């Protein structure tokens, strides 16, 4: 075609070729336009106003339950509190209090610890359990047992773990297990209430915290008697037996026992019937102010220094003999209460994370895993370079869900901290502070904490919404 739209001649009359115009060079460039969405065909009888009539009650309810409280909380947070719940002057005083008051600063710090630790640990444990569930025989039972805590209320979990974390081994499971493991590797026996008998007190210096040292010296050939008193003879430690007279050996020897028997009787400073040997007590031989030998009292109450065959020595009972035996940890003390409550949270939600991740692993193509194994990858390489990347969307879902849940954590923290006494304040989070401030009619401060929680939640919510939209595309 020519520029005028007429057909171009391929050759001239003389037979010489005539150039043909390129139509693509002269046509204007076409612009790509997004196709319009086809109009939705409405069913017969459908009207816009009719849809509005049905949506109106839901909109009113949503505005009354969500929108109005949110606006009111924002406004109320800008006014200080007066006695009786009244509002005071306008300003940002409540927000300043959140980041300057010691109590709320502790709550902010604990919320940060929760945000860093809990979602990460829940996701990791859920992934570990999901992998294990594919390699155990009773996978369904395994998943069910781990998921059951999700069906238990936060109140019940808080009460249960408050009992588990009790300080006394006879009451708390955590300390019972801890003490049992400790005692497997340490045979140290402490007698915290023992002290030198009154009749012999003048012959010793020191106290139970630093230990006792004899003023007089002892030599090999005559047994040294070290009488102590203060043992609970009604409920004595297990394994203690009747003390016996020490035998004369070649080296310095003697006996350590509780110089009092149930029912009384006997003579002070002498081993009488029914008086118990203090097995496990350490005795040190001291010469010129230095410890030259150490012995341990046996089940008969005897100690012996076979290498000390001559000379005179003072006897010393170190302070470790009078320390309390290991009784576990103060799980609900100021240093451990927050990690202890996080552990109870992990017990609840690790099963939830496991179920989601196990479902994600079930959807992974087995061909990709087998291909990696055929190429020589180890199981760890398959897991790290194939399984985890393919599970990334599900891991994101679990992690973001846990972040949203952790920001507003309340029930478990509140219940366990109530049983912890004074140290319960060290476990406070913002949601607990909000509840406490509302109960004391500090509505402005409570509203400010609520607004802060909403602002912290917004990034996580935005990430979740963005992920949902990507999944729809």
Short overview:
Among the domains are: 101-176 and 331-440, MetI-like fold; 195-322, no CATH class.
Main sheet record: 5 strands, antiparallel
Oligomeric state of the chains in view = single chain
Q: What portion of the residues fall into strands of 2 or more residues?
A: 5-15%
Helix content: 40-55%
CATH superfamily of the domain at 101-176 and 331-440, by name, is MetI-like
Strand order of the largest sheet: 4-5-11-8-9
Helix and strand element order: HHEEHHHHHEEEEEEEEEHHHHHH
CATH architecture of the domain at 101-176 and 331-440: Orthogonal Bundle
Supply the number of helical segments.
Answer: 13
Gyration radius, in Å:
40 Å
What's the CATH topology label of the domain at 101-176 and 331-440?
MetI-like fold
Mean of residue pLDDT?
84
Uncertain segments are 1-21
Give the class from helix and strand content and strand pairing: alpha+beta
C-alpha geometry: elongated
Explain the overall architecture.
The protein has 473 residues and is an alpha+beta fold. Among the domains are: 101-176 and 331-440, MetI-like (MetI-like fold), CATH 1.10.3720.10; 195-322, no CATH class. Helices cover 46% and strands 11% of the residues. It is built from 13 helices and 11 strands. It has helices at 23-26, 48-76, 93-98, 102-133, 139-147, 154-164, 173-185, 337-362, 366-374, 379-407, 411-419, 430-439, 443-472, and strands at residues 79-81, 87-90, 195-196, 204-207, 211-214, 224-229, 252-258, 282-287, 290-296, 302-305, 314-318. The strands form 3 sheets. It has a 5-stranded antiparallel sheet with strand order 4-5-11-8-9, with no helix packed on it. A 4-stranded mixed sheet has the order 3-6-7-10, with no helix packed on it. Strand 8 (282-287) and strand 9 (290-296) form a beta hairpin. Helix 4 packs parallel to helix 8 and helix 10 (379-407) packs antiparallel against helix 13. The longest helix has 32 residues, at 102-133. The chain is elongated. The two termini are 45 Å apart.
């Amino acid at each position: 075609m020519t520029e005028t739209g007429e057909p171009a001649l391929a050759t001239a009359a003389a037979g010489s070729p005539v150039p043909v115009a390129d139509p693509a060079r002269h046509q204007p460039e076409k612009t790509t336009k997004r196709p319009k969405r086809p109009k939705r065909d409405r069913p017969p009888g459908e009207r816009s106003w009719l849809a509005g009539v049905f949506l109106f009650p839901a909109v009113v309810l949503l505005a009354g339950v969500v929108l109005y409280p949110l606006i009111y909380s924002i406004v109320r947070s800008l006014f200080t509190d007066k006695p009786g719940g009244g509002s005071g002057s306008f300003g940002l005083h409540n927000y300043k209090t959140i980041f300057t008051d010691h109590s709320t600063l502790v709550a902010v710090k604990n919320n940060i610890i929760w945000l860093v630790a809990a979602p990460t640990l829940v996701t990791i444990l859920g992934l570990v359990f999901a992998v294990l569930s594919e390699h155990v025989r009773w996978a369904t039972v395994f998943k069910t047992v781990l998921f059951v805590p999700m069906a238990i209320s936060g109140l019940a979990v808080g009460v249960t773990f408050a009992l588990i974390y009790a300080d006394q081994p006879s009451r708390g499971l955590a300390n019972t297990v801890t003490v049992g493991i400790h005692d497997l590797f340490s045979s140290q026996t402490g007698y915290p209430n023992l002290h030198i008998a009154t009749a012999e007190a003048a012959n010793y210096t020191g106290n139970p915290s630093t230990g006792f040292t004899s003023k007089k010296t002892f030599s090999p050939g005559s047994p040294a008697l070290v009488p102590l008193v203060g043992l609970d003879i009604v409920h004595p430690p297990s394994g203690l037996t009747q003390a016996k007279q020490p035998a004369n050996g070649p080296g310095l020897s003697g006996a350590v026992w509780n110089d009092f028997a149930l029912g009384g009787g006997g003579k002070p400073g002498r081993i009488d019937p029914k008086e118990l040997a203090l097995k496990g007590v350490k005795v040190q031989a001291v010469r010129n102010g230095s410890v030259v030998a150490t012995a341990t009292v046996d089940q008969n109450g005897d100690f012996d220094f076979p290498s000390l065959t001559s000379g005179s020595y003072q006897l010393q009972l170190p302070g470790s003999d009078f320390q309390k035996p290991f009784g576990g940890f103060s799980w609900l003390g100021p240093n451990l209460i927050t990690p202890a409550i996080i552990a109870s949270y992990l017990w609840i939600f690790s099963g939830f994370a496991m179920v989601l991740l196990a479902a994600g692993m079930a959807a992974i193509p087995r061909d990709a895993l087998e291909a990696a194994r055929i190429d020589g990858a180890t199981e760890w390489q398959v897991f790290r370079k194939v399984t985890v990347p393919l599970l990334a969307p599900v891991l994101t879902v679990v992690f973001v869900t846990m972040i949203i849940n952790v920001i507003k954590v309340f029930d478990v923290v509140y219940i366990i901290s109530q049983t912890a006494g004074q140290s319960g304040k060290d476990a406070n989070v913002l949601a607990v502070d909000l509840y406490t401030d509302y109960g004391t009619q500090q509505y402005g401060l409570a509203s400010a904490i609520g607004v802060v929680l909403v602002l912290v939640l917004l990034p996580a919510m935005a990430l979740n919404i963005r992920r949902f939209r990507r999944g729809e595309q």
